[in-house]
Amino acid sequence: MSIDRESIDELRIDRTRAQSRLPGWLAWVVLAVILAAAGFWWLKRPGLPVVTTAAVGESASGGSSAVLNASGYITARRAATVSSKVTGKVTEVLVEEGMTVAAGQLMATLDPAVADQSLQLSRAQAQ
Length: 127
Prior knowledge:
By secondary structure, this protein is mostly helical. Helix content is about 30%, strand content about 5%. It has three helices and two strands, in the order ααββα. The chain has helices at about 5-10, 25-45, 115-125; strands at about 90-95, 110. It is elongated and about 125 Å long. About 0% of the residues are buried.
């Protein structure tokens, strides 16, 4: 079997020609389309929302309306126990964070409505 040198040379890849994936003009067209789409999106995107403000004042009814209703307990950064013997709505807080308090000092007042209703119910059931 003889090796045909000329046939083997034809099988080689000619690397002298630089081949690009896209012709130069097609790459520019694709880039122009992408830039046009980005520009269109930039111009048509929704604007910033308009924000209006209003002054807040005290209610004319004079009654106390609760802004926040929550249940739970108060804990300090240091070991301290604060609790109530009855449950109720806090109507007034007499201390602030960082204040020094003494044993027996009044720290908050509770709305007595729930406790009063419970007392009246107990008296009615006792009769």
